[in-house]
Amino acid sequence: MNQQQQGNGAALPLRRLGRTDMHITRVGFGSWAVGGPDWAVGWGAQDDRDSIAAIRHAVERGINWIDTAAVYGLGHSEEVVRQALAGMPAERRPYVFTKCGLRWDPRDRKAPARQVGAAASIRTEVEDSLRRLGVERIDLYQMHWPAKDGAPLEEYWQTLLDLKREGKVRAVGLSNHDAAQLDAAERLGHVDTLQPPFSAIRRDVALKELPWCAAHETGVIVYSPMQAGLLSGRFSAERAAALPADDWRSRSPEFSGERLQRNLRLAAALQPVAERHHSTVAAVAIAWTLAWPGVTGAIVGARTPQQVDGWLDAASLELDAQDLSEIASAIEASGAGTGPARAG
Predict the structure, then answer these.
(1) What is the DSSP string of 90-148?
(2) Would you list the domain boundaries of the chain?
(3) Would you say the pTM of this structure is higher than 0.70?
(4) Is the dihedral of CA 145, 147, 152, 155 positive or negative?
(5) Which CATH class, in words, describes the domain spanning 3-10+22-235+279-319?
(6) pLDDT tens, residue by residue, 298-337
(7) 1: pLDDT strictly greater than 80
(8) Phi first, then psi: what are they for 278, rounded to 5°?
């Protein structure tokens, strides 16, 4: 299968996710923001009804995978995903990807989560995620961050490989791990996927991690391709200044001062490319990440159905050599971010 049927009769192109038997749309629905407020890295107030409507709309438009994590909303995002998929016919249900390795204190919701890799902890987490998601098997299970509890990578990666062998999960991967850690994991068993941050602002993984994944047939699903909204084409200095205290972006250096100005200059430079393609700045920013060798798909968040429609074009938008050269020049001229601006 090379295309995913859209609700409006069109079809979205599919890419094989590494060596797995899953073929995914080039963009997937990201469920970080739908976790809601009242935790360490929430996105501010969010109505669950809007979240459910956004997820269902994305699936109706042809998106065939959802990315979430246990820690998003401290379990709440996974519960919202379950509600959104409830009653959906099996043939229309999207793949569900989630992550483990971040443990929180329910008595102190604002405390940073602990990076835990102990085997017993991960086994508890997978059962909790299966229950919250209401599924018998998780399609992709990833270690969210390298552990800091003393558990070596070999321990938590072997645990994920065991869960795959036992049938509790379909595929396993790593998120926020570097090339050396990927090498160490690959020696034990194949890394099905990597989930790194990647955008026209945050480009560092293009140096080592993307080439490593391309060489090892490891699927790559990048997160924050619009850099948390900065490259959406709808952001401004005024909006950044008005971010509420319970939105993690209000504390990020990318959203203030000279770094914000550089980022907004880059976003503005994407507008001519968007106009040529009769698309949006958001879709161009996402399509830029998808044009890099090794990248399989991009995770894109939305709080409402309307936001889904703002980036859905990226699922089929192909940037040409002129576009990529123009964007690379704009990156270099703006001074935004770090990492290579051009592939090769």
Answers:
(1) GGGPPEEEEEE-EE--TT-TTSPPEE---HHHHHHHHHHHHHHHT-SSEEEEEE-S---
(2) 3-10+22-235+279-319
(3) yes
(4) negative
(5) alpha beta
(6) 999 999 999 999 899 999 999 999 999 999 999 999 988 8
(7) no
(8) 50, 45
